[in-house]
Every structure is written in structure tokens, then in C-alpha cells.
């Protein structure tokens, strides 16, 4: 019997994807950081991470340093395995 994957929603574009294909981060102490298993978090899809307009909106929304935020998102996007990226298509 196949196990059903949890579906989560990207906060930037409101699209729904399998949980393992999304980037999970949290907002803590006025900084967006990698989710460490504690507290509330949110998900971003890889399409939104690559979209400059969406990233600019997120920087403004969370009042972040744009350069640091983009660096964090690109590092996290590289950690999503290639087989998980194929689910987005």
C-alpha cells in the first residue's frame, strides 16, 4: 500500500505541493532562519525562490536583508534532491 505524502502550501504563491519538495523556514527574532524542529514555520516552493519579484516581496514582508535572505534561500534550494524537484513539473 502506498503511503500518502503530506501536501503543504507555499506562502508566496499559494500553490500546493508535496511536503518534501518545499523549503521549510521560520521567522525568529526578526530573522528568517532554517527550521530547526521547534516553533512555527512556513514553506516556499522552488519556483518562488527563483522568482525575483516574489523574493523581493518576501524580503519586504519579513523586513530582511535582501542579500542574506537570497543567499539562505539559494542554499536551501540546492539541498532539495533532484528526484524531489521532478515532482514540481
Overall description:
The protein starts with 6 loop residues before the first strand and ends with a helix. It has a single domain, classed as Hypothetical Cytosolic Protein, Chain: A, CATH 3.30.1230. The protein has 4 helices and 5 strands. With 89 residues, it is an alpha+beta fold. The strands form 2 sheets. A 3-stranded antiparallel sheet has the order 4-3-5. The protein has a two-stranded antiparallel sheet with strand order 1-2.
Summarize the structure.
The chain is about 40% helix and about 20% strand. By secondary structure, it is α+β, with helices and mostly antiparallel strands.
Question: How many separate domains?
Answer: 1
| Tally of alpha and pi helices | 4
Tell me the CATH topology: Hypothetical Cytosolic Protein, Chain: A
- The largest sheet has its strands arranged as 4-3-5
Write the layout of secondary structure elements.
Layout: E1 7-9, E2 16-18, E3 23-28, E4 31-34, E5 42-44, H1 46-50, H2 52-62, H3 66-79, H4 82-85
Antiparallel strand pairs: 1-2, 3-4, 3-5
